[in-house]
Amino acid sequence: MGASPLPDRSVCAGTAGRLEVKRVEKLFGANRAVDGVSFTAEPGRITGLIGPNGAGKTTLFNAIAGDIPIDAGEVLLDGTRIDSFPSYKVFEKGLARTFQIPRPFARMTVLENVMLAPSGQHGERFWNTWLRPGLVARQEKEIFERARAIIEFCGLSPVERQLAGAISGGQQKLVELARVLMADPRIILLDEPGAGVNPALLDTIVDRIVELNRRGLTFLIIEHNMDFVMSLCDAVVVMATGKVIARGTPDSVTAAPQVIEAYLGGAVE
Ligand SMILES: Nc1ncnc2c1ncn2[C@@H]1O[C@H](COP(=O)(O)OP(=O)(O)OP(=O)(O)O)[C@@H](O)[C@H]1O
């Protein structure tokens, strides 16, 4: 699939967000899934979050994105605490996340899935369609045009009229990326963007992330594919059994003895 080379302003405004995670805890009964985690995803950088199975990475993502409440600690986006916000409010503040398993509306087209993404559309208020039809029509046109620009940027134009349930898993991951881009976030959390994706499509995904990052977008990425992490990330945070055990450049963390031990002692990917 041919993806367009450069995002224009209609795809990404290019404002970088700063995410601070401070002493965050999340317990499931006696299981300290996230156990006092602190790190910063610096603005305009791509930070990798790695660690063996069960390390607490997805739980931390869920906590940051407001999908589950935290038990202790703080999460700040550009200096504002967001840890008590529900997920829709975190999203509105500029932090968007994708899921390990994509969740498109399978019986809607790719274009419809992407167009549905932004919140606060005037047409959603039923009286607006009666009282302010011009406003609703104008906004629908803007959403349509923005969705098509983002779909083109993500290399999805050839499948935009196909049902989202009928395209490949890798293409569905790109649909997820397209959906979150509709909100023009400042930081995107990607949960295993490379998992189960064929190599050609993986190149497209990597390329799009790099391009968006060049425009200033901050990324925090959970990924098990170490080639992906090494080639993409500026900084890496390593978790094991709920704690951060190392952080630094990709080269330095993969050489750290505690990281090698965590992977060998737990489930090796
Ligand atoms: N909803 C839940 N209820 C109870 N325990 C949970 C729940 N979600 C996760 N856990 C537990 O929390 C711990 C961390 O799991 P989590 O899925 O966050 O790890 P992970 O690092 O994302 O693993 P993976 O790489 O396999 O996705 C595990 O012990 C897991 O069993």
UniProtKB/TrEMBL annotation:
SUPFAM superfamilies, per this entry?
P-loop containing nucleoside triphosphate hydrolases
Instruction: Note the SMART domains from the entry.
Output: AAA
Q: Specify the ABC transporter domain's residue ranges.
A: 19-266
What keyword terms does UniProt attach to this protein? Answer: ATP-binding, Nucleotide-binding, Transport
Record keyword tRNA-binding present: no
Q: To which protein family does this belong?
A: Belongs to the ABC transporter superfamily.
PANTHER family cross-referenced by the UniProt entry: CONSERVED COMPONENT OF ABC TRANSPORTER FOR NATURAL AMINO ACIDS, CONSERVED COMPONENT OF ABC TRANSPORTER FOR NATURAL AMINO ACIDS-RELATED
What is the protein's given name? ABC-type branched-subunit amino acid transport system ATPase component
